[in-house]
Amino acid sequence: MPIEKTEYLPSSRINKKIRNLRYNGKEIYINLYGNYFDEKYKKYSNIIINKHILQDKLIKELEKMDLLYCPYWFDKKFKKPSRLSFPGKLVTYLKVGKPILMHGPSYASPLIFLRENEAGYICSTNNENEFTLELKRIIDDKNSKKILENANK
Questions:
Q1: CA–CA distance, 21 with 19 (Å, rounded to integer)
Q2: Neighbouring residues of 5: CB distance < 8 A, sequence distance ≥ 6
Q3: Model pTM above 0.70
């Protein structure tokens, strides 16, 4: 599950929750790409820090992932940009053709886009337990093929 910058992680509580995350007895690995990650992440066995790479190489790496995570701002001071902007990262994720988990407030434009097109998973909670339950639901989802088909349109 690649994440590009830590300042976009919606909550420090959720940030802590994804460290050492396990489900059905298996560890969930998180690949971080970029040059902005705190050294503290290196101590977690499931977080793999990768340096920034060019987009064509990044796409090849993203194709190896099971789920692509796109966090967005929950902070009210970013409400207007959340409603009016669309992250380039999400366009790249759609190009890759893997399941996407968009995590942000319900009013954010990328969440609305994915919801209206049924092209990704939406998580609009900032509660760590609800986030973890949603992640587990996604892992167990039997309808992911439909979501992938819609994402590839």
A1: 5
A2: 34, 36
A3: yes
Contact call for residues 108 and 75 (beta carbons, < 8 A): no
Task: Please give the structure tokens belonging to residue 56.
Answer: 């064509």
Contact 131, 123 (CB under 8 A): yes
SS3 108: coil
Place of tokens 């339950």: 133
For the segment 30-88, what is each residue's pLDDT rounded down to a tens digit?
Answer: 888 887 776 777 777 788 888 889 999 999 999 998 889 888 888 889 999 999 999 88
Q: Which tokens hold the place of 105? A: 């407030």
Cα–Cα–Cα angle for 33, 36, 40, rounded to 5 degrees: 95
Nearest one of 20, 69, 11 to 43, comparing CA atoms? 20
Other Cβ atoms within 10 Å of 68 Cβ, number: 25
Q: Are 90 and 68 in contact (CB under 8 A)?
A: no
Q: Do the strands 121-123 and 100-103 form a parallel or antiparallel pair, or are they unpaired?
A: parallel
Rounded Cα distance, 22 and 38, in Å: 22
